[in-house]
Structures are given as structure tokens and as C-alpha cells.
UniProtKB/TrEMBL annotation:
Residues 46-197 form the HhH-GPD domain. InterPro entries: A/G_AdeGlyc_MutY, DNA_glycosylase, HhH-GPD_domain, HhH_base_excis_C, HhH_motif, MIG/MutY, MutY_C, NUDIX_hydrolase-like_dom_sf. It holds the Pfam family HhH-GPD. SUPFAM superfamilies: DNA-glycosylase, Nudix. It comes from Oceanobacillus arenosus. It comes from the Bacteria. This is Adenine DNA glycosylase.
Length: 358
DNA sequence: AATCCGGGGGT
DNA sequence: ACCCCAGGATT
């Protein structure tokens, strides 16, 4: 496909230009202090679809709480989710703990250096596998993320749709050709740093790019058109009434979500799907669903919460109940003190401002 | 191959 | 609004 471009590509000079730029400009990041495979691993999972600046405080707190695979393996899953609260994509945290437990049980607590063993762990896909192998173990393995796809598609003028797995594999094959065997850890991280600071999605700073003279996209003036990517479709809106149900002991009803799917195992205030039942039957629905008699009170406000694939349109109501206990295993009555121990999605954290004393 | 899965920030 | 972000699992 782009063999012609690759044939004329000066690999040695490219590596030298890229790496000398990186050695001079590399960012001082918390997970670059050492090459502890566990810490590299945690950082890579957190960084999936998440910006560096967002991850940094979470990384410090997480490593402080779970310094090695042993602390994480022994931890309560709810505590792990609490440490992940607000980061999103919560299955990352559950899969990470599952995989760490596997490392302790089957690999003596040592993160596998074998590509197949590493790649078989929960939550470790092709990117994360390559990142750990290259950064922690100095293996010349590609680590193709969004940055790398953008940078490589511009350099080699690859005009395939990067939303497709096939294109990711093509780029991986190309990286395998041009990666530095002497310092693969720096090579992979250099491309990522370049992608975040110079070779940005919009208005790339080609005039300051250390590898401009190697860039076929720039040579042909198409760098701003690359990479090619199909658009995501619009999110579907789903309306809910959310109930802040309080009893006479000033406790609120919270509910644990199911253990699979959206926001799995996190806690929330009960949500009534009003597009399914109609807003006339809210109190009846709550009784049939949870066995709790409630009386709707004041409308506290509305909230729109946008996910990647759906949009929640939330109407928040205060409600009262005479109940002080429940047999429903999903539910708990908690006071304002206890509620802070449970992992909540950001949308429901925002509702806590409406919780009142008395 | 397409869909599901969070939340934040830049433009 | 729209796009992107150090992606992976499931269908």
C-alpha cells in the first residue's frame, strides 16, 4: 500500500531525529520515575482514552493506596472502584484487579515479560501489551494508540480509516519496521509526546517538528487532512426521574447497579425510567420495583449527563418514605456520613448538593 | 465489523 | 456542537 513511501524512508536518520528531540524535551511524568512494570501497567490502564493531566492525581493516589500487585490483589473491589471514582470506564479498574490477582496467583507476582502471557491478562489489549513490553522491559514492540495512529498516518501518508482495526494493524506493522531496537521505550513514548505537543489533531506545529523532513504528509501538504476517521454516531437520549428518598432518620436510599454493563457495581440514587412507565406511575413503580413506599416531594433540578454513546436526561426529585430498612439486596439506607464511602458516578455525585440535613 | 463503555477539555 | 483522549471487551 505505502511500501513506496516506506522504501524511501530513512529509518536510521528518523530514529536519531526523533530520539534526540525526545531526550531533550521529554515530559517528567510520575510513571516515568522508574521502570516498575506494575506502575507502568497502572498508568497505561488509566491513560486509556484519558488525558495525562486527568490521570496524574489519580495515579498518585492509586499507587499510594496500592503500591504493589500484592496490595491491589488483596484489596476489596469496592475500594478499588472508590479509588477509580470519576475516571470513567470502570471496567478498567475491575479488569486490572482481576489481572493483578492472576499475576500473583500464576506468575509469582511478577508481571509477565512473555507477550502471549501478558496479552492474555484481562484488560491488556494490543496497545497496553506493547506499552508494557517496550517501556518496562525494553522490547521492540509497537504500542499503537491514538497519538501513534495520527503521527504515523501523517508521516507515511496512510489514508485508511483509523477507526478500523485493520488500519491499526497496518500501522502496527509499519511501526515494527521503523521502531528503534536500541531504545524502544523512548521511541514509543517519543511518538506519543510528539503527538500530544507537536503533531496535534488540529493545527499541527509542523514548523517545530523534529521529523518534518521525514513526513510524507507534510511534503504533500495533506497533514491537516490526516488521519482519516469515520464519525461516531449521535448519542440516544434517555430520560429518567431520579429520587432522593429520605426517611425519618435522615437516611437516603442508595442502590448498587448491576455487576455488568454501564457503571457496573457503582452506587446511585434510584432512577425511574419514565419513557417506559410514564411519569404518572412513579410511586407505584418504585413500590413494585423496590418494595418501598415513597411520596414525591419537591423538584430539585435537572441534569444532563453525556456519555460516549447515550445521554441521560435527569429530573431530580426529593421523596419521603417511612421505611428504615429493606430486604432488597441492591439497596441501602445511608446517612450523609456513610454515603462518602461508596463509589458513585459523577452524574450522581453532582446530585449530592441537593441532599439536606433534617 | 460494529457496539458498548465515562468523563473531561479544547476548539 | 463536535472532536479527541497512552483502548479493550463483547456481540
Amino acid at each position: 500500500m505505502n511500501e513506496e513511501v516506506l522504501n524511501k524512508f530513512n529509518i536510521q536518520q528518523f530514529q536519531q531525529d526523533l530520539l534526540s528531540w525526545y531526550y531533550q524535551h521529554k515530559r517528567d511524568l510520575p510513571w516515568r520515575q522508574d521502570q516498575d512494570p506494575y506502575k507502568i501497567w497502572v498508568s497505561e490502564i488509566m491513560l486509556q482514552q484519558t488525558k495525562v493531566d486527568t490521570v496524574i492525581p489519580y495515579f498518585y493516589r492509586f499507587i499510594d493506596k496500592f503500591p504493589t500487585v500484592y496490595e491491589l490483589a488483596a484489596a476489596d473491589e469496592q475500594d478499588v472502584l472508590k479509588a477509580w471514582e470519576g475516571l470513567g470506564y470502570y471496567s478498567r479498574a475491575k479488569n486490572l484487579q482481576t489481572a493483578v490477582r492472576e499475576v500473583v496467583a500464576s506468575y509469582g507476582g511478577v508481571v509477565p515479560e512473555n507477550p502471549d502471557e501478558l496479552g492474555s491478562l484481562k484488560g491488556i489489549g494490543p496497545y497496553t501489551k506493547g506499552a508494557i513490553l517496550s517501556i518496562a522491559y525494553n522490547q521492540p514492540e509497537p504500542a499503537v494508540d491514538g497519538n501513534v495512529m495520527r503521527v504515523i498516518s501523517r508521516i507515511l501518508k496512510i489514508e485508511e480509516d483509523i477507526a478500523k482495526v485493520k488500519t491499526r494493524n497496518l500501522i502496527e506493522a509499519n511501526v515494527r519496521e521503523i521502531i528503534s531496537k536500541d531504545d524502544p521505550a523512548s521511541f514509543n513514548q517519543a511518538i506519543m509526546d510528539l503527538g500530544s505537543s507537536i503533531c496535534t489533531p488540529k493545527a499541527p506545529a509542523c514548523m517545530f517538528c523534529p521529523i518534518q523532513e521525514h513526513c510524507k504528509g507534510f511534503e504533500d501538504g495533506v497533514q491537516e487532512e490526516l488521519p482519516i476517521k469515520t464519525k461516531a454516531k449521535k448519542q440516544k437520549k434517555i430520560p429518567y426521574v431520579v429520587l432522593l428518598i429520605r426517611n425519618e432518620k435522615n437516611e437516603y436510599v442508595i442502590e448498587q447497579r448491576q455487576d455488568k454493563g454501564l457503571l457496573a457495581d457503582l452506587w446511585q440514587f434510584p432512577m425511574v425510567p419514565i419513557n417506559e412507565i410514564g411519569r404518572k406511575h412513579i410511586e407505584n413503580w418504585v413500590f413494585s420495583e423496590y418494595g418501598i413506599k415513597v411520596k414525591l416531594k419537591e423538584h430539585k433540578g435537572n441534569l444532563k449527563h453525556v456519555f460516549s454513546h447515550i445521554i441521560w436526561e435527569l429530573e431530580i426529585y426529593e421523596a419521603e418514605t417511612k421505611s428504615i430498612a429493606t430486604d432488597d439486596p441492591r439497596l441501602r439506607f445511608v446517612n450523609l456520613e456513610e454515603i462518602g464511602n461508596y463509589p458513585f458516578p459523577v452524574s450522581h455525585q453532582k446530585m449530592m448538593q441537593y441532599l439536606s440535613e433534617q
